[in-house]
Amino acid sequence: MRLSIRLALLTGLILCLTYAGNSFAQLDSVVRRAAFDIGSAVIKCTIADVNISTGQIVEVIETLNEKVDFAEDIARSYDSNLSREIMDAGIKALEKMKRVTADLHVEESSAAGGAVFRSARNGRAYFVRIKEETGIPSRIVSEQQAAMLSYHAVRQVLDSSAQELLVWDIGGGSMQMTTRHMDGGLLFYIDPMSSVSFKNVVISTIQGKDITTTTSPNPVSPEEAASALTNIKTHAATSVPPLITSRLRHSNMIIAGIGGVHYFGIPEQIGRRDSVYTRDDVAKALERWTGKNDEDFDSEFAATRLTNLILVLGYMDALGIKEVHPLDINQSNGLLAAPEFW
Length: 342
Hints:
By secondary structure, the chain is α/β, with parallel strands linked by helices.
């Protein structure tokens, strides 16, 4: 009897030690990271605890945003270089965010930038400067890498079959749509038509003004809005790959809209935040806000608020998209768990 009791106690001890060992191993694999998405118009930072063994985000601790309009700056550059002023503003914003990460005991940091820095002649030199002055490991990612990071960030939080998901990301300097081929590979649509670039198309092509001296198209007349909508519908219909267009029209795909345009801009102009917004919601908002001045929008992004409505509505009409699920997700969420960036 005593032997059996001793054996039982020994077995229990072994089980406890095994459980404790597994628990400590799991704790050891969780790292607090800060991922910086140096976007075309906004620098975003997501601070989260990440299980580096599984690649899963355990908990998002904080999100930070600072408006730094690189896309607007490069659009007005005579030599395709970012100005000293905008680069200094970017460094200042990153240093401000980094002080927050230090207070939150971040162990690892990584930053990624995209389209505007690939096109700027001094973009790569600027990222060397970012690393030297802030200490944040930084790199410029390809268009496909950026789209892939966004897609996998959405997959982390959205319960959807991979074959039924399309991620639509609108930034200041580029737009991406990402879904899966039937064979499992990723299919990308990447377009320089985006929030800032389309706003400048409206100013230059529709209104006939000089974008180097005119920063906002507002107020946009009903006739100008109709002409801009026709312009972007034609662009979308002729540029989006037929495979994506066909799948959108003949399947029940979930359209996840990420980035500031989808999550902040469109809901703000619609006047409410729901889990989805519809094509009709956008059309009614466009009608309501056409003709308004910058001051009426009460936003630091006033110059693009109306043209974003036209941009999104044009793509929805051209591709037969009836509704979009706006998500508060950006490239930094995908960056957090991508092992090649750490």
